[in-house]
Amino acid sequence: MLAAAALPAHSEDSPPAWAYPVNPPNFQRAPDDGTIRQVPDSTAGFTLTQLRDLFAAPDWHPEDHPPMPAIVATGRKPDVFACGVCHRADGPGGPENASLFGLSAEYVIQQTVEFKTGLRTNSVPRVATDLMIKASKGVTEQELREAADYFASIKPRSNIAVTETDTVPKTHVRDLFLARIDDGEKEPIGERIIEIPEKVEYFVSRDSRARFIAYVPLGSIEKGRLLAASSNLRVQCAACHGADLKGTAVAPRIAARSPTYAFRQLFDFKTGARKGANSELMKPVVENLSIEDMIALAAYTASLTP
Hints:
One of its GO terms (molecular function) is electron transfer activity. By secondary structure, the protein is of the alpha+beta class.
């Protein structure tokens, strides 16, 4: 396990390690002992092997969503993984990838095409992005349309509690996300967002109702609110992302999304790693933002209702 406190320091120009968790070289997943895992308010049960199957999305709460299209539920072997595995059955995603529910179908399709054509990458190589690029190259137009329409039909919900603090639990990287080290120790938050599952085993089990705590620096939510409406950004966030930042057909909802994910997008636009249809609009908005500014914007947007 790699403690988050041991991650390398960063400058304003280097990607912060807390936002781009990378499994340590000796990382190994726990072996499957055959135990049937369960989560609250569900009668379903899955083994670890089943939960790790990239071609079978665990559906813990089928009552939460319409019937999943085949591409979401099972994908298509060998290259098109089930969308519902990484993004969960009804699309909440996690800190390591995008939440999809409530985004417009047009936007989901556009972003998938940008992964396919190489316009959308990360400032740091990431397994989640590599999987998305591979799937985007194999999916058909019909499959993509079905998945996009499905996720667009689901009402978004908040699954993040944003908490301002000056100290945070010590964490380590656990399979591309941060998790609490269960020794009760804390450390200064510094210039970071520390986003962790409330119950890590529910998130590992791909429970679509899993919730997160996002610890952010003191004062960052109000700073982000002021910054989002400031002329210093050249374009106020609501001008593109809509009233209350709940999105439009061409710009995504940024309210109530993972602040770790949101920070990465701001940073990737700034570095030019993320290109595509919206990059020319975003580049002048983010080019003068500091790490502290981007943390504040991510904290503020995550604190909103979807």
